[in-house]
Design brief:
Belongs to the 2-oxoadipate dioxygenase/decarboxylase family. Helices cover 45% and strands 14% of the residues. With 450 residues, it is α+β, with helices and mostly antiparallel strands.
Length: 450
């Protein structure tokens, strides 16, 4: 038997295929890709990779993508977990989006190891519909009935998942076929599986419910390239014929970026036809997104971030039409002045995670702070690889239309999500802490003081 294709190689092949498919389906995504590439090149040419920080020195920046899908049933979620495992992607983090009025809870499938992230950091934010949050019992039953009749995976895809599990991997030919088969799950279908009446009832309850329930599969709803300067991309989108959402989600502009900042172009209104031949309508769900990633925060840092963001939201909430965008940005920047904007201070205060490596001077003693001051030990920010529930919900809400929807109360249920998934989700903060601790131990050992 020929050697197996590595999961990272399969992941890279799938990421490229997904990007090509989405570019063909949503031409503005191609325009967005070109804009992000241009901005990244300008940043690196203007200030150099070193000045751009860790992100500027990551070879992965040009291939980095994340996508998002929404599935309808526990069975679909469990099979998606198995599909992503073939590509070396595993569930990390639990996100309750009901806190922001979106009836799903989610995880991110991604590589967990440093080597896998360096080889290809493709990740997919995956949400499961919370049918229990649909208040109308008859409508809830109707949605469940529709979901029970569909199969979102091709027979070939299911067979190759099983083969990979049984033999421990896929050879090159099977890997290529797996990518082709898996891609079908994420493809757009303009024909709804329901009649027009049910579609509009579900859409009135919440547009996202209609998006999940009423189509043959969980079409990819956005792909996201990574930029080195999201503010410049946001400003330049209109010049490229792209309408951006009103505000950038996440923390404000900083010298030392933290966590994740996201923006997007507004979702397309796409024609749909209905099962009963009812009057054709339009569906709004698919869009293009851009992200800028910063350093991962510790539990202490995240607690401070969440408190500051909550303080901002108590003062002002960004309006969907952008009417208070400038005031929101000013408030965000003002409130977040309380969060240190210096890597050394964040590290010393235990607010963020850092990777340690040997510097260019000899060690003198074993004190970590003294070694850093002397240049014998170097601390580099660990990139945040995950997501923020308020930001994710903000992106979703801005791309689901403006119609009224039922109010939702926050109701996290990690136990139910993991039961549906068929596995526990990894704690993202524990992964960062382990990477930091392992790097410090290895660097001190290399210096002869560990």
């Amino acid at each position: 038997m020929s050697a197996f294709t590595s999961p990272s190689q399969i992941r890279a092949q799938f990421s490229r295929a997904m990007s090509d498919m989405y570019r063909a389906e949503v031409p503005q995504y191609g325009t967005l890709m070109t804009l992000v590439s241009d901005v990244n090149a300008d940043v690196l040419a203007g200030i150099g990779a070193a000045a751009a920080g860790a992100a500027g020195q990551e070879a992965r920046i040009e291939v980095e993508r994340h996508g998002a899908i929404r599935v309808g049933t526990p069975a679909e979620l469990a099979t998606i977990r198995r599909l992503f495992a073939v590509m070396g992607m595993f569930p990390v983090g639990y996100y309750d989006l009901s806190v922001a009025g979106v009836p799903v809870h989610s995880t991110a499938f991604r590589p967990k190891d440093v080597a896998g992230l360096a080889e290809n950091p493709f990740r997919v934010f995956t949400s499961l519909l919370r049918l229990d949050l649909i208040q109308d019992a008859a409508l809830r039953d109707a949605a469940a009935g529709v979901l029970a009749t569909r199969s979102i995976f091709t027979p070939g895809c299911l067979a190759l998942i099983e083969r990979a599990e049984q033999q421990g991997g896929l050879d090159d030919a099977d890997a290529a076929q797996f990518v082709a088969e898996a891609l079908e799950t994420f493809r757009w279908h303009g024909r709804a599986t329901v009649d027009a009446e049910l579609y509009w009832k579900l859409r009135k309850t919440h547009p996202l419910i209609a998006d999940i329930v009423c189509f043959p599969g969980p079409h990819i709803n956005h792909l996201t390239p990574r930029t080195l300067d999201i503010d410049v991309v946001q400003a330049l989108m209109p010049e490229r014929g792209i309408q951006p959402k009103a505000v950038v989600e996440g923390p404000p502009t900083r010298q030392c970026p933290i966590l994740l900042r996201q923006t997007s172009f507004l979702a397309l209104s796409e024609p749909v036809t209905f099962r009963d031949g009812g009057e054709a309508g339009t569906h709004t769900a698919r869009f293009g997104e851009i992200e800028q990633r910063g350093v991962a925060l510790t539990p202490k840092g995240r607690q401070r971030y969440d408190a500051l963001l909550n303080e901002v939201r108590q003062i002002i909430t960004p309006a969907g039409d952008g009417s208070n965008a400038a005031a929101y940005r000013q408030t965000l920047e003002s409130v977040f002045r309380a969060f240190p904007d210096d890597h050394d201070q964040m590290r010393r205060e235990g607010l963020a995670y850092y990777r340690y490596k040997v510097g260019n001077t000899a060690a003198d003693g074993a004190d970590v702070e003294a070694l850093i001051a002397a240049g014998a030990l170097v601390a580099e920010p660990i990139t945040y690889e995950d997501f923020l529930p308020v930001s994710a919900a903000g992106i979703f809400q801005s791309n689901l239309g403006d119609e009224n929807r039922d109010a939702l109360e926050a109701s996290p249920n990690r136990v139910a999500f993991e039961a549906a998934l068929g596995a526990a989700v990894s704690d993202e903060l524990a992964l960062y802490a382990a990477e930091q601790d392992a790097s410090l131990k290895a660097a001190l050992k290399a210096l002869g003081v560990g």
